[in-house]
Amino acid sequence: MRPAPADEELCPIETEVDAALAWHSGDARATIATLIDDLRHMKLQLALAEGAMSRGMTRGWRPTYDRD
Residue 23: which residues within 8 A CB-CB, separation 6 or more? Predict the structure, then answer.
């Protein structure tokens, strides 16, 4: 059995955080701004999808926009 590489030892969320920071050359403010913009976009997409779906199609399920 061989040891796992160092990057496999990180949990997936830490790896994703590191990747997001690396995309912005370590600039945390730019990373957060991009994530907020992505969140706004996804909320808009969710609202559009909600408007296009019938209640019968989703059997009464309604999307939520915030985490519990």
Answer: 31, 34
